Amino acid sequence: MPTDLRLPQLGDIMTEGRLTAWLQEDGASVEPGQPLYDLETDKVSFTVEAPAAGVLRQVVPAGEVVPVGTVVGRLVAAGEPAAAPAEVSATPAARALARELGVDLATIAVSGRIREADVRAAAATAPDALPYTGRRRAIGERMLRSRQTTAALTLATEVRVDAALDLVDELNRAWDDDGVVLTLTRLIVRACAVALREHPVLNARLRDDRIELPGSVDVGLAMDQEAGLVVPVLRGADRLSLRETAAGLRELAERAAGGRLTQAEAGGATFTVTSLAGTVVDAFTPILDPPQAAILGVGRVREVPAFEGERVVRRRVTTLSLTFDHRIADGAPAARFLGRVAELLGSPAGLR
Q1: In 3D, which of 245, 277, 271 has the Cα closest to residue 161?
Q2: CB neighbour class for 250 (10 Å; exposed up to 12, middle 13-18, buried from 19)
Q3: Which of 84, 241, 258, 281 is the most exposed place for a label (fewest CB within 10 A)?
Q4: Maximum Cα interatomic distance, the chain, rounded to a whole number of Å
Q5: Angle at CA 99, nearest 5°, toward 98 and 103?
Q6: Which residues touch 166 (CB under 8 Å, ≥6 apart)?
Q7: Which residues contact 269 (CB under 8 A, 6 or more apart)?
Q8: Angle in degrees, 0-180, between the axes of helices 162-174 and 242-257, rounded to the nearest 10
């Protein structure tokens, strides 16, 4: 019997993925564990391996975006034909739309009936259009779903970071020989991990009619990649030292840049930090990533005048913006969490 190769689900909210490249030719003999194809989702690029031995019969061509569970190929015994795919035909609505948009139905390759969404996707690949597919579409749909299904509220506060930045400089000099790099954002991740341990409701998840309190603080750090947003996850962040936090986040950033994040590293965060510190943005409203209860946005560092007695001095500050789901937490607990993060950054020696 042929072994169906179905597109795997790599995260709780993954609904589709792009088969970016076949790594074995159609008709090639493969062994268990041998790389078969590369898969891209909104969060990670992943290499799928052969679950069994057999001859590869490709069903979905490279470049296609298909739903989770779609049969993208089959492994058959030598000499055994692949199971015949379902007849590819178009729905009446798809045929009408194809005529309207000038799309040739013969150019659309799907494993099933051609539907209106398939026609629109084909039309989007025209030279004068940018296709809304793959990671960009998955991110967009997830963010839209978040705005429609959560009771989001954002609190913001300006935080003095002179001591935090001094600590960053001090520790980077001390850790230079080991290649461990601390940044303000990584220090903020450490502060959030400590504060989440003390304020667990902001680390909660809402699933159906239950508010779950996970046993671990797993902080995701949103990173901007050429292919789109990716959110690597630092597991057990509350149990790590500042040095371990910095080293772990640097390794995750390198793996994300190389498209080498594993499934465990690319999803399932209980809280997220997203930073625009390297831009001209002072403050913004981060969007929740359900089922998480909260997300913290970090603005750029800027200098402001402040009073010390009668004297005007310069201070370096940043704005922290906490978006939380009001179904899970009320404003006062969220404000206390944000205040604790600000307190830790104001006196960061305890974060070591």
Answers
A1: 277
A2: middle
A3: 84
A4: 89
A5: 45
A6: none
A7: 218, 219, 220, 231, 233, 289, 292
A8: 80
**What is the per-residue pLDDT across 253-302, written as a single tens digit (0 to 9) for each?**
998 888 788 877 888 899 999 999 999 999 999 999 999 999 999 999 99
Q: Of 62, 66, 59, 76, whose CA–CA distance to 7 is shortest?
A: 66
H/E element, 135 = helix 134-149
Nearest by Cα to 196 from 289, 291, 322: 322
Question: What is the C-alpha separation between 42 and 274, in angstroms, rounded?
Answer: 16
Model confidence pLDDT, tens digit, residues 115-135: 888 888 877 765 555 666 666
Tell me the residue ranges of DSSP E strands in the chain: 3-6, 16-22, 29-30, 35-40, 45-49, 54-58, 65-67, 71-76, 152-160, 205-207, 210-212, 219-221, 223-225, 228-230, 233-234, 271-275, 294-298, 302-308, 311-325
In a 10 Å sphere around its CB, with 0-12 CB exposed, 13-18 middle and 19+ buried, how is residue 184 labelled? Answer: buried
Angle, to 10 degrees, between the axis of helix 184-198 and the axis of helix 331-346?
A: 130
Model pTM score: 0.72
DSSP per-residue string spanning 282-307: S---PPP-TTBSEEEEE---EEEEEE
Cis omega (within 30 of 0) for bond into 291: yes
Structure tokens at 292: 């998480």
Helix (H/G/I), strand (E/B), else coil: 217: coil
